[in-house]
Amino acid sequence: MTQQGVRWTTDQVLTLAPDAASRRAGSRLGAAGPWSEVGSSDEGAVWGLCKGGGSEPYRTVVDVADVSGPAYACGCPSLKFPCKHALGLLLLWAGGAGAVPPGSEAPDWAERWLAARREHGRDVQAGTEGTAGSSAPASVSRDPEAARRRAARRAERITAGATELEQRLADLLRDGLAGAEQAGYGLWEETAARMVDAQAPGLASRVRELGSIPSSGPGWPVRLLEECALLHLLDQAWLRRERLPDGLAAAVRSRVGLPASADGPPVRDRWLVLAQYDTSDARLTTRRIWLYGAETDRTALVLSYGAAGRAPEQALPVGLALEAEVSAYPGAGQRRAALGRRFAPPEPTRMRPRGVTTSQAAIRYGEALRDDPWLDSVPVTLGRVVPVPDGGSWQLADADGDTALPLARAAGNHPGLWRLVALSGGAPVTVFGECGHRGFTPLTAWPVGPGPAVPLC
Fold this sequence. Notes:
Elements: H1 10-14, H2 20-28, E1 35-40, E2 45-50, E3 58-63, E4 71-74, H3 84-94, H4 108-120, H5 144-175, H6 178-183, H7 185-197, H8 201-211, H9 220-239, H10 246-256, E5 267-280, E6 284-293, E7 299-307, E8 320-328, E9 337-342, E10 347-348, H11 358-371, E11 377-390, E12 393-398, E13 404-406, H12 409-412, H13 415-424, E14 429-436, E15 439-446, E16 454-455
Antiparallel strand pairs: 1-2, 2-3, 3-4, 5-6, 5-8, 6-7, 8-9, 8-10, 11-12, 11-14, 12-13, 14-15, 15-16
Helix pairs in contact: 2-3, 5-7, 5-9, 7-8, 8-9
């Protein structure tokens, strides 16, 4: 749907709002109630009619395919850019295909505007069509210098947000971590909203994660201090990004929330679906699909999104293989990729990824941190390991050595652990999962002999 291959997230849409009032008004219009005749095209256009105060609904259309930034048109008289109707339409679209059907045919009024933009090379970003119901909005010339200025203004806003966040972290540490438990989640949500205002959704997401740590169990002050240190490091990296190597600078831009395109050269391979699982919060459902290339020996992560409570559209069952192209996103050590052209439908396979020892997995994570210090984990396949209890928790021990990896605390309480234990029965198994500073999270396992992949998540 977009050049990035996925629908935008709610936070990405809200960063476009010119002010807090527009963000609130747009959020109220991000539901299906006031909208009719909505649709979206494969070329990256979204349109719809929004019921307003006039006798006729406002015609709203957004072109999200331009690398210089989205372009908007709306029949409302608002002088804000983008208006609340454009924000509401994008929020509705970010919620998934159930609200805004993909592959639709644009109505005449939207098609005329889109055709004018693309035929004449115009960057149409008028905040109004002049009068509600007019057929063609005004347009201005495409200007690379204008795109550069927009990027510079956003960078300035992110810098201001990072500077403010540094002060808030300093206040937290000066007053003591105990105050974070007493203040409650509202303090963190207000700080996150400030980062959204600064057009830094990545910082906002990390701040919300901080808010979930106080009172989360034994040792929470240590975990909070660790995450505050990582957030401080990200702030400082952004403020000094001109001094960083190109790969690390790209990782910093991605971590603060700047959009990027999967512009790496397409890599064709036979890709094994290693794992698929969803994570959700109050705003968004994120689906992670791990792929393994048989010829390239490369692991790639494909992301897709849906509104909270809705499953994303893209789905690939674990254990199947497909011949396809993937293109990498920029950034040192970046695993994320966009799934491109497919040459054959997915089909069952006996292929398995190559496994490593537990000590090699730990080394692999340490090396990855040099490229991206904010990396929570790396994808790893462990070969010939046995799940064994370790006091009140579990670990995966090498069957042919004397080293082991502890399971992440969340994995130790997950039903998938018992599927893994039953599959093993004390014998070695092959396990794919994510290895990081919280331990190893198993996602898929294979028995020692022939047998299909067993999802653990």
